[in-house]
Amino acid sequence: MGGRELLGGRDLPFDPEAVGIDDADVLDLLEPAVREWWVEEFGEFVPQNGGFFTPPQKEAIPLIHEGEHALICAPTGSGKTQASFAAIINELFRRDRTEGLDNSVYCLYISPLKSLANDIHRNLEVPLDGITEKLGERGDDVEIRHAIRHGDTADSERQAMLEETPHILNTTPETLAILLNSPKFKEKLETVEYVIVDEIHSLAENKRGTHLSVSLERLEAMTAGSPTRIGCSATVEPLDGMAEFLVGQESPGGPPREYELVDARFVREFDVELTCPTDDLLYTPAETINDRFYEQLHDLIQEHTNTLVFTNTRSGAERVLHNLRERFAAYDESNSGCHHGSLSKDTRQSTEAALKAGEVDVVTTSTSLELGIDMPYLDLVVQVGSPKSVAALLQRVGRAGHQLGETVTGRVIALDRDELIECAVMLKKAEEGFVDRVFVPENAQDVAAQHVYGMAINGPRPEREVLSILRRAYPYRHYDAADFEQLCRYLTADYDGLEEKNVYAKIWRDTNDPPEGEHHYEDFPVGEELIGKRGRLARVIYMTNIGTIPDSFTCQVFTRGDDEWVGQLDEAYLDTLEPGDVFVLGGDRFEFRYRRGSNVYVDRTSARPTVPSWFSERLPLSYDLGREILAVQREILDRLEDGKSAVRVWLREFPIDENSARALARTFDEQVRYAGRESVSTDQRLVVEEERDREAYERHYYVHSNYGRRFNDGFSRLLAYRCARATNANVTVAVADHGFTLSMPLNRKVDVAGIVRDIDPDEARSDLRASLEGTDLLERYFRINATRSLLILKRYKGHEKSASQQQVNSDMLLGFARDLDDFAVIEETYREILEDKLDVAGIEAVLGEIQRGDLDVTTVRVDSPSPRAFGLATLMASDVVLAEDESAVLREFHRRVLEDIGHDGGDGSHREGVAESDGSAVTDRS
Question: How confident is the model at residue 882 (pLDDT cuts 50, 70, 90)?
Fold first, then answer.
């Protein structure tokens, strides 16, 4: 067992006395001047337990004092960052007073955001200055230096750090990787004894965290001892997995390093509720819904000091702020603002400063303020629409009520029918202490390429040592000799024709056993397998090209034939497009044909749109929350046996308002009355709803797979690939969080449910990989991975390639690279798409449940979409361009449902379930 949980997890509220921790014991660990400063500063601000320390501080400070690795999970405002620094500052002051400190770094603070690093840097000034002053009063001349270093740090400041080195250095993962290869500064890191990783969950789930985990192992190999690692997060699951990500392994293949868990995630009281402006989002006029929404939002803002409003898109954040200012005289530029990544740095920093000072009534944002600066005056968070995961909900709502003991107040406002069930379950699971899991990318060859290159530049170095450092990092714990051989084949350019493409070897591999009389490396035993760098510019190439955040660009859209420019698309949007897909741009419809470099070529069309314009910007529903929703849907069906009112009564146990409860009960009641109980997907049943659209001469299959958009993107590609082979027809796909649609000509029919049942989970990966051939998704991700792997250099000899220029180079290399045997960059491209973007593991798990008989697959046939398919159907419906068009289509779908229910008398008695040999059912509503 690598770790031990110390705080009793989800017992609400946390009782510090239950684990025998006393304020006096913690105070006794502190130096007199530190203790005096702490008591003066915090003695009156801890109402939860009437002492000097918050629960996470009381537990974490002794652990860090003892040099234990620790993961601290606690809400925003509970003092976890102070808990991390307190014991470190105490030790540094003690040592400087008694024996002095070297001119080097002792503590690294690593943040995912520059703004957060800046904020922590400012916040450190208060304790350091205060304690230094108290020691000065005692006659002790001490100085603990701290500084910040990231991409915005001036060259003069970086140079000054060599002369007068900070003892505490605030930095980012990318800058740490550069410092590890800095000829002069890397020596300053050999004294590091503490590493704090803040907001660790936001790093672990992507390749920035993968990169950092290897940097920490490289740092470990440089230092005399083993630096104490401290991770901080407000919302994370699983705790043990995240702690193991933090600490790595002592030896490859061995257990994780010992660690402790400080679990104080649930020490704060939450007042969170789902509201909806109406109990009927179909027929209430859009103007009425908007009026009620903005009136409610205005009232909430006026009742609170500072309000932060989260939307799911940047344009949504802009629109909400604009409408507030237009509708109410209470808001102008002096007391309201907007914050998102597309705004200028100056604008963002101005808004952040106003929030920190409590000088604004309201700020609207998308995701950019989920992490970052302290906002001590913020007392309300409003989430418009679903944040798509419990973790995101807690992270956002947790920004309010900054002081421990204050109730965290949050309101989620649903404006979409499909998000009602999603938000209701999300809030209920949050109340129960559920948090979605973080999934860590594994064996990423592009990140490994950067670090092996970096270690070779600092070398020569034994191969066994390089591989050992990689494998001690949690994301590479399953990395084996074959993976390393594949990587080294690429890095040594051991492929015919690679140099003709201007791709040269980055490292050499050799045995330290030269012929007699020739040079050998005296630092290593004869016979040792070594690696080293190739090329005089290796260090410059490494320092100017490493990192994992991909560049992106805007594509110019032209019509074919006349090359008329019609607008721009973010390249991420291309991930969702296949040739033949129809999208809306500037109010007109276009059919996607192909991309060349940064140019997209389209045809004008009157056909229905198949991909919504917001698709690439919104976060996907989490797989774990999707499964919880399916379980709740089964419970709703059980209670519906006693009538719609029984469902409504039960839903009142959820933190939702009456409008939401009524709307949900009505939707499921109409669903069952129209298409039967077996038309609702649950944790025990996957529903395929088949509609014959005779007007459009098409057959639609609505697959109600409520596992989130990542899963559905992958699963829909897999099914479309198999359906196309089975029918020899074009299959159109439209994807959402709660399912997806497959469409084909009406004269082509396929047993989609049968295809699902027949897919061997072991074949899913290879079929999904085959479905990616020739797609823009593959081309884009190859460019990203080629750049990360240094196959394509962003910067070289003073020249910089834009993302669009990188794409041109990538397109020329892709065909060549695809034909190479076991080429690391191609293999990583497929791995990232399949595992990180398309959730192949989730797909394999669901297919496994079907194969074992734990999940039935049911087909329901209808003449018109069922209520639970309305959202999927509007993605494929004719004439849906504007919001009012979508509302009209939804009302027409609903009119057909009501008409059918009326003919039926409301009891559903004419529907006939037909048992099939595999235990699934078909209901025919056609």
Answer: very low
Whether residue 41 contacts residue 79, with contact meaning beta carbons closer than 8 Å, is answered with no
329-343 confidence digits (pLDDT tens): 999 999 999 998 777
Closest C-alpha among 231, 220, 245 to residue 468: 220
pLDDT tens digits for range 803-826: 778 888 888 899 999 999 999 999
Strand order across the beta sheet in which 461-462 lies: 461-462, 529-533, 507-511
In whole angstroms, what separates CA 824 from the centre of its chain? 25
Q: Which residues does 917 contact at the CB level (< 8 Å), separation at least 6? A: none
Are 859 and 920 contacting, i.e. CB atoms less than 8 angstroms apart? yes
**Secondary structure (3-state) at 849:** helix
Q: Which residues contact 610 (CB under 8 A, 6 or more apart)?
A: 581, 582, 583, 732, 733, 734, 875, 876
Residue 523's H or E segment, with its range, is none
The structure tokens listed for 280 are 């009927």
One-letter amino acid for residue 251 of the chain: S
Does residue 611 have a pLDDT over 80? Answer: no
Phi, psi for 636 (deg, rounded to 5): -60, -45
- Of 757, 717, 753, 755, nearest to 735 by C-alpha is 717
| Mean pLDDT calculated for residue range 342-366 | 88
| Rounded Cα–Cα distance for residues 86 and 74 (Å) | 16
Q: What is the DSSP letter of 492?
A: T
* Residue type at 348 in one-letter notation: R
d(CA 579, CA 590) in angstroms, rounded, equals 11
Paired tokens of 897: 């449902």
Reduced to 3 states (helix: H, G, I; strand: E, B; else coil), residue 37 is helix
Contact 312, 384 (CB under 8 A): yes
Q: How far apart are CA 859 and CA 922, in angstroms?
A: 5
What b/e readout covers 821-860, taking b as 16+ CB neighbours within 10 angstroms?
A: eebbbbbbbbbbbbbbebbbbbbbbbbebbeeeebbbbbb
Q: What order do you get walking across the sheet with 194-197 strand by strand?
A: 3-5, 259-263, 70-73, 228-233, 194-197, 107-110, 168-171, 146-149
* pTM for the predicted model, two decimal places: 0.88
DSSP string, 352-396: HHHHHHT--SEEEESSTTSSSS--TTEEEEEEES--SSHHHHHHH
Spatial distance between the Cα atoms of 384 and 74, rounded to a whole number of angstroms: 25
**Cα 764 to Cα 839: distance, rounded to the nearest angstrom:** 11
Q: What's the whole-number mean pLDDT along residues 541-567? A: 87
Q: How far apart are CA 574 and CA 565, in angstroms?
A: 17
What local confidence, expressed as pLDDT, does residue 192 receive? 97
pLDDT at res. 913: 32
Q: What is the pLDDT of residues 905-921, one digit of tens each?
A: 333 332 333 323 233 34
Structural contact between residues 332 and 361, judged by C-beta atoms closer than 8 angstroms: no
Report which DSSP code applies to 735.
Answer: E
- The two three-digit tokens of residue 519, written as one number: 């040079």
pLDDT at 183: 92
Task: Find all residues with CB under 8 Å of 892, minimum gap 6, and list them.
Answer: none
Amino acid code (one letter) for 297 = L
H runs (alpha helix) in 99-232: 114-137, 155-163, 173-179, 200-204, 207-222
CA–CA gap between residue 169 and residue 214 (Å, rounded): 19
What is the rounded CA–CA span in Å between residue 183 and residue 186?
A: 6
Whole-number Å distance between alpha carbons of 247 and 197: 11
Distance, CA of 506 to CA of 488 (rounded, Å)? 9
Give how far Cα 401 sits from Cα of 76, 297, 391, 419, Å. 9, 18, 17, 26
* DSSP calls for 702-728: EE---S-HHHHHHHHHHHHHHHHHHH-
390-395-400-403 Cα dihedral, nearest 10 degrees: 120
The pLDDT > 70 percentage for the chain reads 90
Q: What does the alpha-carbon distance between residue 806 and residue 784 come to, in Å, rounded to a whole number? A: 9
Neighbours of 464 (CB within 10 A): 12
Q: At residue 7, does pLDDT exceed 80?
A: no
